[in-house]
C-alpha cells in the first residue's frame, strides 16, 4: 500500500550555485522524522527523486539535495573535474550539506530533532562530513562512500553509521574500506559495514544510457538489499508514530 505524498522543487544557494533539490512530504500535517538524501557524483536525478518519494511514503520528510546547480553531469570527465576537488575539500562538502540541511530543517513538517543523512557516492561523503562536523543527526547511511576525514574529527560523529560497498568496487577498494573502519573504530563510533559480494561501484544505480567511469555496474539483487538495509537503519534510529516499515 502507498500513501498520498506531495513533492515540490526547492531552490537554495550553496557552493556558489543555485541548487535545485527535491522535497517529498508524507501524507498529513504533523511533524515527521526527516532524511537528507544525497546523490552520486553525477548529480540529482530521477533515481534519487524516486527514492525520496519512497521514503516519504514510509513517513519521512525527505530532501534529495543537489550537487551541481541543477545540472546532471553525464560526461565522466566533467563529473570528475568537479567531484574530485570537492571530495578533497571537507569544508566545501560541509557547506553543501549544511545548506541543504538548513532547507530541510526549516520545512514545517520536519522534526528538527529527528534527522538522518543517507547518501550515495559523493552525496554519502557529504553526509559523513556533516557527522564529522558535529551535526546532530540520528543516523548516517552511505553507499559507495567509505571515505575518511581529517584526523580526529570522526570523534564528533554522534550517531550510528552504516556503510555499504561492493566487494569488487575499484574506487573504494579493501585498503580504503580498512582505513574507513579503522577511523570509525578509533573514534568510538557505532559503525557497521556491509560488503556486497561481487558488486562494483554504484551497484545500487540502474544502468544509465551514457558513459561512466570504469568500475561501475548495476547489481539489482544487491541494490534491493542495500535499500532494505537503509530502511532498517532508519526504522531503528528514527522510530515514531506514522513511520511504516
SSE blueprint and pairings:
Elements: E1 6-14, E2 17-25, E3 32-38, H1 46-58, E4 61-64, H2 76-87, H3 90-106, E5 110-120, H4 122-132, E6 139-143, E7 161-166, H5 174-186, E8 191-196, H6 220-237
Helix pairs in contact: 3-4
Essential attributes:
alpha/beta, 8-stranded mixed β-sheet, globular
| Structural category | alpha/beta
Give a short account of the largest sheet.
8 strands, mixed
Distance between the termini: 12 Å
Radius of gyration: 16 Å
Strand/helix succession: EEEHEHHEHEEHEH
Number of H/I helices:
6
How would you classify the quaternary structure?
single chain
Give the overall silhouette.
globular
Specify the helix fraction band. Answer: 25-40%
Uncertain residue ranges: none
Q: Strand order, biggest sheet? A: 1-2-4-3-5-6-7-8
> If you average the pLDDT, what whole number results?
96
**How many strands appear in the DSSP assignment?**
8
* % residues in beta strands: 15-25%
Report on the structure:
The protein is an alpha/beta fold and 245 residues long. It is 34% helix and 23% strand. It contains 6 helices and 8 strands. The chain has helices at residues 46-58, 76-87, 90-106, 122-132, 174-186, 220-237, and strands at 6-14, 17-25, 32-38, 61-64, 110-120, 139-143, 161-166, 191-196. It has an 8-stranded mixed beta sheet with strand order 1-2-4-3-5-6-7-8, with helices on both faces. Helix 1 (46-58) links the parallel strand 3 and strand 4. Helix 3 crosses helix 4 (122-132). The N and C termini lie close together (12 Å).
